[in-house]
Design goal:
single chain; alpha+beta; six-stranded antiparallel β-sheet; 2 helices; 17% helix; 43% strand; globular
Length: 77
């Protein structure tokens, strides 16, 4: 099942399929290691859903909801 990273619930895991977005946002995500094929685990989510804390490539990363909306994920069961 494919869904956006911003739609994940705390504790869900997935693999990045695509990173959408334009220019600087997409470049910033790639620079932080948010690239297709990377495994992601959603650790924490703020009460209003912004920001999100994920574990990716062995480190913790905090993303804004708008950034997480750009990342399409394949959910791992």
């Amino acid at each position: 099942m494919v869904k956006k990273l911003s739609e994940f619930k705390v504790g869900e895991r997935g693999v990045i399929k695509t990173v959408a977005g334009e220019g600087m946002i997409r470049r910033r995500l790639f620079d932080m290691g948010v690239t297709p094929g990377a495994d992601v685990y959603l650790r924490k989510k703020a009460p209003l859903g912004d920001p999100l804390e994920v574990t990716i490539r062995g480190y913790e990363l905090t993303l804004r909801k708008t950034e997480a909306d750009s990342v399409s994920m394949e959910v791992k069961e």
